[in-house]
Amino acid sequence: MSESIQTPSSSDPQEDADVKLTAAQKARVERNRQRALLLRQSRLAKKPYSSSESKQKVTRTVDTGAGFFLEEEDEEETRSKKTEVKHPLGPVLETATDALVCEDCGKEFMDSWLLTTYIVNVCDVCKEDTEKHALVTKSEVKDTYLLKDADLEVREPPLKFIIRKNPRNPRWGDMKLYYGPQVYDRAMEVWGSEEGLEKAHDERSSKREKTKRKKFDKKVKELRLAVRSSLVKVNSGPHEHEYGPESYDEESDTYSVSCDCGHVRTYEKM
């Protein structure tokens, strides 16, 4: 006796439709779906949202190139913002040969920190010589080279500087750092020579000594006046007699006491 096996038929009409579609038809359906999505996106881009409406998200289909697509959602406000990238301005190069040749080693270089900051044609390798390319603070500039603010900022060309936090204490305020060789050249321009700078130092030292001497003499004078005033008795009221030891007079049988002011008091004892 033979048994017949019957294959159950699918009850879902959607599955029957999928089975009947060929590969070409499925590809055409997928292309139509992608075209509809692109058309929808173009319509949304032509009609931006009003300010009163809440932020909405737009679906964007991205072809990964690996056989499938990804959908990303971007906010309109994020898409409308443009990120502005700012870069520091580079130095102005007068000539291609002089500006890019190091003054110390003579080698060519594309850019350097001293060139960008102080317009000095020195490469970053030679910059490491801190004695030759030292940076000095504004207080050191005034004490060592006796330069004023007008010599640094008003006299042409104004000296360039950078601002740094005080390494000793950040609460003391920022420091202005000048390029040492440029400060030296400016001092020679102001004082004429190193001998002129030394002479200015000597004159300033003598003035300081005179000022200290005047302050010292004034304090000594004030001290002397204070000592003298303490020795002088000030009569601030009626005089009170201060009598010395009493003396006895046998002829008159009386006793007497006298005060420094000349007053004499005579009395008898019972």
Q: What tags apply to this protein structure?
A:
single chain, 270 residues, alpha+beta, 8 helices, 8 strands, disordered N terminus
Structure overview:
The chain is of the alpha+beta class and 270 residues long. Helix content is 40%, strand content 14%. It has a three-stranded antiparallel beta sheet. A three-stranded antiparallel beta sheet has the order 6-7-8, with no helix packed on it. The chain has a two-stranded antiparallel ribbon with strand order 1-2.
Short description:
The chain has 8 helices and 8 strands; from the N terminus they run H-H-E-E-H-H-E-H-H-E-E-H-H-E-E-E.
Q: Which series of helices and strands comes N to C?
A: HHEEHHEHHEEHHEEE
The biggest beta sheet reads: 3 strands, antiparallel
Q: Structural class, from secondary structure content?
A: alpha+beta
Percent strand equals: 5-15%
Number of helices: 8
What would you report as the Rg, rounded to the nearest angstrom?
Answer: 50 Å
Mean pLDDT: 76
As laid out across the biggest beta sheet, the strand order is 3-5-4
Q: How would you describe the shape?
A: elongated
Uncertain runs: 1-10, 50-55
